[in-house]
Fold this protein.
Amino acid sequence: MGVLFTSVSCTTRPVDRADNPIVISYAAAASQLGGLEPAEVEERLRDWARTGLASHLELDAGRFRDALYDTVPIRDLAFADLSQQSTGPGRALFDGRGVLHVLVPLGDPHESRTIGLLIDQYRSNAGADPQQVQVHHYQIRPGTQTIELTPEKPALTSEVRAAHGFVTMRVDEAKGLADFLAKTQHLS
């Protein structure tokens, strides 16, 4: 796989099976992390993981641009007024082929919330759910300047929502709203 953006320098090592990790190297861009606050370093590495996944999926420039929606591939204060950069532990990437790829930290204590929020954000932006969701657990490895993504098998969005405790119901009548509220603990 080649480099998607030379300033980011994310490269991926191809894998032959879906359950093998995708390894993204950020070694060539590590110098850009010097002097940044640790939280900002983590945000940039998550962004680069998303960019590396786009490279691995061989998204062309148009699909990658569309997948970024209102973000930019490189965090820079010069773009602050032009974009809405993702924050927090998860990232999402729509591949333009019906699959929303959700990046979640390995061992995330709030994994269901992270996944649900990313799916909901996609729905808010696109107006509908994607056909499928593929969860990728990531692990940042500073010692080797790599990020490992371990993909799960893609599943229907409704199945992913149900597996993580999300309930969707009609609430346009009082009984429907009461039934919904009786089955939920948190609203998003």
Remarks:
- The chain has five helices and seven strands.
- The first strand starts at residue 11 and ends at 13.
